[in-house]
Amino acid sequence: MANILLQQLFISALFTLSLSTHFCLSSSKQSATIYDILRSNGLPMGLLPKGITNFTFDDSGRFEVHLDQACNSKFENEFHYDRNVSGTLTYGQINGVSGISAQDLFMWFTVKEIRVDIPSTGLIYFDVGVVHKQFSLSSFDTPRDCLVATMSVNNQLIIQSVPKRLSRKLRTPNHHLQEDLMAVL
């Protein structure tokens, strides 16, 4: 009888310990920020703008970040973040990036992949399709403020607003685009 009681007590204690371990691990996984996840995958926290709290991350490494609005951050070049940014994390890189663009020579390029060298060379590489842009890794150490992005016409970002007195001189092949531009100004 004493053995049965001890066995039940042992099983009950083991079950309680297992349950509390599960809840502790679940709690710590949920409390991790997207910046913690980037860092644990060998990437700098500053790849994404400051203040992100709404994101998903699964066991395959797939993540989605949801911003309140599209925005731009300035590093060595300017980066644009759409309202939704996604990709797949593996150690030292993000594949299948969606929602990030980089400006170079007044043109915007869609970022397709981001990677760092392992071991680190102090550089970070952005695959924008036609070339791989490299930047100093230290530029991305901390998340930057993200300023509200201006509107996009035909996937071309308008970074500076046009004064109303000059807007009449703008000619667009599509009258609706000109109306849309005027509505923003």
Question: Could you explain the architecture of this structure?
Answer:
It is a single chain. This protein is an alpha+beta fold. The protein folds into three domains: 1-31; 34-149, at5g01610, DUF538 DOMAIN; 153-184, no CATH class. Helix content is 28%, strand content 33%. Strands 1, 2, 3, 4, 5, 6, 7, 8, 9 and 10 form a ten-stranded antiparallel β-sheet that branches. The relative contact order is 0.12. Residues 1-20 form the signal peptide. InterPro entries: At5g01610-like, DUF538. This is Legume lectin domain-containing protein.
Q: What distinguishing features does this structure have?
A:
185 residues, alpha+beta, at5g01610, DUF538 DOMAIN, ten-stranded antiparallel beta sheet, 28% helix
Radius of gyration: 24 Å
User: Would you report the number of β strands?
Assistant: 12
Count of spatially separate domains: 3
Shape: globular
Computed structural class: alpha+beta
CATH class designation of the largest domain:
Mainly Beta
**Portion in helices:** 25-40%
CATH architecture of the largest domain: Roll
Mean pLDDT: 76
Secondary-structure element order, N to C? HHEEEEEEEEEEEEHH
Number of helices: 4
Low-confidence stretches: 9-29, 158-185
Approximate strand percentage: 25-35%
The main pleated sheet reads as: 10 strands, antiparallel
First-to-last CA distance: 85 Å
InterPro entries: At5g01610-like, DUF538
Signal peptide: 1-20
Protein name: Legume lectin domain-containing protein
Organism: Lactuca sativa
